[in-house]
Amino acid sequence: MTAEQTIVTPLDPAGDDPFGWLEEVEGVDALAWVRARNDEAHASVGSDPVFAKIEAQILEVLDSDDRVPEVSRLGEHLYNFWRDADHERGIWRRTTPESYRTDDPEWEILLDLDALAAEEGESWVWHGASVLRPEPGEPWRKVLVDLSPGGSDADVTREFDLVEKAFVSPADGGFTRAVEQGGAKGALSWCGPDAVYVFTDFGPGSLTPSGYPRIVKLWRRGTPFEDATVVYEGTAEDMYISARRIHTPGFERDLVSRSIAFYKSETYVATDPGTPEQTLTKLDIPDSAEAGFHREWLLVELRDEWTVGERTYAAGSLLATDADRFLAGARDLTVLFEPTPKTSLAGATWTRNHLVLNVFEDVKNRLHVLTPPASASGEWVRSEFPETDPVAAVGTRAVDAVESDEVWVVTSGYLTPTTYGLTTIGAETVEPLKSAPAWFDTDGLRAEQRFATSADGTRIPYFIVGSEAALDGSGGPAPTLLYGYGGFEVPMTPGYSAGVGRAWLNEGGVYAVANIRGGGEYGPAWHQAALKENRHRAYEDFAAVARHLAETGVTNASHLGIQGGSNGGLLTGNMLTLYPELFGAVVIQVPLLDMKRYSHLLAGASWMAEYGDPDVPEEWEYIRTFSPYHLLDGSKTYPPVLLTTSTKDDRVHPGHARKMAALLAATGKDVTYYENIEGGHGGAANNAQSAHLSAFAWTFLRERLGLG
């Protein structure tokens, strides 16, 4: 923008975008603008003495050796990825189950990312590892390690040898993906000890409009990458194509997944993949359903109603059937779970012989065990899972779903530190293995669930944490932070946060989390109620919770702040532009904000099932009602805003946050902007960056809402 230009708001989406140049992620002018804004943020919010204190408090937690090391069991070892003050990028390490039970486990380092980054001159960020199950009697050895340059979604894959504790070079036949290109969206997945499925950027025309792989190939060890055989090729309009093998001995299956849109996909069972005899059999289930195989069983989780013969199965149900019989044409389906107005399926975890159901009941976890029959005609048997904390969020993972009935159990509550436990199906208790320390004082604090009423009469649950006086309204309006997301069927559940406790609760603040529509708290229907033309319901729900906090005396508008990231950034952006009178401060992180352009920026096209297509005039008519970049009116009064993003975010384009900050500044509003140069969609690439970013939010909120 030049000095002669005048910004007229609301912006005309059909006109020239005065800040379109900020979409050039690595542009010289754009980065100069970013650095200038970062300097301003450090000179204002960052110069507050409390900033350094909060940053140090949070970094102490993130780097602490007292954190619970979450592990996965592979053979005789437990594996963990760990960052601390001495390992900024992190280490991949392992120990034995016996050593893990001690207060000071002995860890064997397998891969040091800091050393690798120094050696190669690249800011590697860990994206995970996929380990191939060996043949009986053979050691666990073959690994595909994913590393991201700077934290972007685009990454590289390298084969790693667990015995030699070293990468396998391409010269020695090691599998490697996209090193020369600096990374690509996609992956390698094992198809046997000497073959992988590869779905990545194969060159022009090989990616979908969302920037994801459109083609999957089978690549055999010892052959050139260019000679990999096409297994499946999607259309130019698809979202993502991938493939994987289920390696359970005796129940091996090769599956190809075609994601057509975010909630629409097809699954194919492949035989003789990558050969002239290859066949693909489409799984005959609704495109909106999710399928999962375990041994002889096929599970189908429904997002929409499904009529099979004369029976209709409810949306949100979980069905089971014998996989081979289903593929042969039989349709004898067993209902394992059916939702009620208060319950939904939060997850399902297979062990070797059992299925653990995790059910939400008014957003509180309840666990049950189902045991399949010995034959397809038998009955599933229900039994009880060992009792867990009734007010904390509870998650389960199988220790080894191929060979064991053991289950990891992780619990975490707003005032209860995370506990890592182990149980075996049939046991009466969960053995606590590790528990995180209490990082903040909970004396006088309580957490509870409340309900607000939205504009259309729907009851909206929310969690609230604070002092007794603040929660009963007797302490006067307290500085309060309300957090939300409300999209993509993602539920907001309780969880222990040392940052919230140290920087906010222990200073007298109140923290609340809204379970608005668009999320997954009550299953698919709760999510679908706020899609596309009904997006306004999510914002009405959030506004209802904000009003309820004021009406019950917890806070008032000048002391109420809000925070959200990604889709939650779109939420808080809309609360800023649609309900500015309700809030005293707004934190918007890695957001979508320009909903006219979102589908043309990075992965944005993949989200049109959630928001709609802005290039279709009829759909733009409702999308424009929740496009904050086009709703901002310079003549109106808005609360102070903090906008943050990452240059390396290749999922949600940093241009959204940049342009909104520039528009707010150009219209004379109170806006603070900070952009981390690394970090990807998570905003930070290491603990120090995470602590620095968090300190901006907490310091900004304290200043604007009068905390302390």
TrEMBL record:
InterPro entries tied to this protein: AB_hydrolase_fold (IPR029058), Pept_S9A_N (IPR023302), Peptidase_S9_cat (IPR001375), Peptidase_S9A (IPR002470), Prolyl_oligopep/macrocyclase (IPR051167)
Annotated transmembrane regions: none
One MF annotation (Gene Ontology) recorded for this entry: oligopeptidase activity
GO biological process, one term: proteolysis
Alphabetic keyword roster: Hydrolase, Protease, Serine protease
Pfam family, one: Peptidase_S9
Peptidase S9A N-terminal domain boundaries: 16-420
Gene Ontology CC annotation, any one: cytosol
Domain Peptidase S9 prolyl oligopeptidase catalytic: residue ranges: 504-706
Stated name of the protein: S9 family peptidase
UniProt keyword Hydrolase, yes or no: yes
